[in-house]
Design goal:
The protein is mainly alpha-helical. The protein is about 75% helix and about 0% strand. The chain has three helices and no strands. α1 runs parallel beside α3 and α2 packs antiparallel against α3. The N and C termini lie far apart (about 55 Å).
Length: about 70
């Protein structure tokens, strides 16, 4: 059985998911811009990038709800 080798973008996407989970609230907007740029540049849909975007936007919303 042959396994497919992970591409560079998949490895970077996994690192990005870790970064999202460790991100501080003041870094949310910058990280979201980075994620959106990577999504636009990617040739195919990267599930990890979309998950990272979902995670960061939900964290942004929860922080805003606490401040209201």
């Amino acid at each position: 059985m042959k396994f497919r080798k992970a591409s560079e973008t998949e490895i970077k996407s996994k690192d990005l998911l870790k970064e999202v989970s460790r991100c501080k609230p003041e870094e949310f907007e910058d990280l979201l811009r980075q994620i959106e740029t990577k999504i636009e540049q990617s040739e195919r849909k990267e599930g990890d990038l979309l998950m990272a975007k979902t995670m960061i936007t939900s964290r942004m919303a929860s922080v805003r709800n606490k401040n209201v």
